[in-house]
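Entry type: protein chain
Record version: 2
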Amino acid sequence: MRTFDIMFKLLDRYVLTRFLSILMGAMVAFITVFLVVDVVENMDKFIDAKMPRQAMVAYYLYTLPWFVSI
């Protein structure tokens, strides 16, 4: 019975690490696509408003948690 418990814990850990690594990879890919598309869409607005680079970075840093929560 003890061997079964050890193997089950090992299998759980393996499945969990594989799942989390795939999940993190997908999240990074979606966030990258979101940022690229949003920058391309809003670049004209940023240029017209003469927004400084620091403000654009702050905008995306504050927008990122909203996107991740979706």
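Comment: Residues 2-69 form one domain.
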